[in-house]
Amino acid sequence: MKESSWILKMMVFYPSELHKKKLQVKKPIYIVYYDSLQNKTLENGNGRIRFNVEGKEEYEEGEIVNNLREGEWKGWTGKDSFVENYSQDSLLSGALTKANGAIVQYDSTTYKVNPEYSGGIYKMMTFVARNFDYPKEAMKNGVSGIVEIDFVINKVGEVEDLKVKQDLGFGTGEAGIRVVKKFGKWKPGLRRGEPLRVAYTLPIRLNLR
Asked: Locate the TonB C-terminal domain: which residues (predicted)?
């Protein structure tokens, strides 16, 4: 009988509950964790743990106390390193050291921020509804459905890299590109205090009924 090559690395329980027909996942419970040398470094929600991002040169490690991050956490993201300080899972402060030696300070308000359209998502969807130019050929042929446009908000808040992900034909994809180009500048997103590129997919529902 062959021995199994599978080795337990980490066991985490994600408690959840149904709330108004939506599944809500609560904070994870860390049951056990073994390091690369198979030393048990965490048990029953207390100890040291390391998280690796699959497919990326990124990791973070630190102490878990009663299933919450506590104290100093360190890690790498690409060529940059960072140090963060937590209290009961709340980020108090962080410092990202760039490959060129520059240091970026951040806290919970600038740790992870999504790009923001001026006026918010509702205003953006209202803008699309009012400015989408339904192609005449699409109207003649009774085209209805969903057009999807991929785009990126770059580090300075500009819209770029527009592509038609899902097209209904008769010029609907091109019309989607045109309306997204009119968005104007966004407030850029942040990750650990630094601006970053964020990709989006915008669904535009077309209905002639």
From this structure: 119-209
